[in-house]
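Possible regression after last week's pipeline update?

I re-ran a chain I had predicted before the update to compare outputs. Posting the input and the new output here so someone can diff against the archived version. Not blocking, just want to make sure nothing changed silently.
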Amino acid sequence: MPLYEGPKNIIETYWKKYSDDRKRISESLKDTFLFNKVTISILREIAWSLYQPYKWLFVVPFLLVSTIVIGTLTILTSVIFSPVAGGKFAALWARLNSYFTPMSVNVKGHENISPKQSYVIVANHLSLYDIYVLYGWLGIDFRWVMKKELRKVPVLGLVCQTLEHIYIDRSSSEKAIESINRAKKKICNGTSIVFFPEGTRSPDARLQKFKKGAFKLAVDLDLPVLPVTIKNTHKVLGKGTLNLMPGTAELIIHQPIDTSDYDEKTLSKLVKKSRNVVKSGLSM
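New output (post-update):
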């Protein structure tokens, strides 16, 4: 028998014993509270119950106070200096409220942004917390496209107006187009525009159909489309609920899509390509 056969047999015997023990322990753990689905569900309910006082006593009041205080600073800065300067306070507002939730944000792909380039930014829409993610972590000056009803929200409506965000009337295509056309001159010199092309928050976190408005604007202005994927904000605050919970969101900034080869006839191809890119981020 070769000299190496002895050590080889010892190693094989030890490895088999190790594998058998690991399998036995794993099977045993499945029956313990660590892997018991019922226990995990109970622990989640306990965590949710413990978080509720913090939400109502700290998170919500902080949102109200910070919106008034930082909103006022944003308005004054925008009027005295510029909307770009005012936007710095908006980013601070977003980050502070995220940290206070608490929600952390992991960012990938920031190197895909050129600070002096303007973009038509398209992102999926999962939660109201998407606003915090984009404002706080995208890191560039941009204008929102938002429904006109938000203009009536105290403080927030005035803040958005002084920051020169774009209100559109979704009930009238003609008025919406007029609003976008008036905004075109603002989208230059590194200032971008953000669209949620799904039109509303996804009810089930699945990516919905994209509308063409954002992409038509990109082609008209000869601006690149910047696809952005937002993940997990619906786990922090889902659509149609007040069940706020701490969590970690993710912002994936994809490579820009050149629109110079697209026109009115090939617009649907640009929409499809952009949607596929955003969708790819959801599975990363």
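Follow-up from reviewer: compared with the archived run. The two ends are 52 Å apart (CA to CA). Marking as no regression found.
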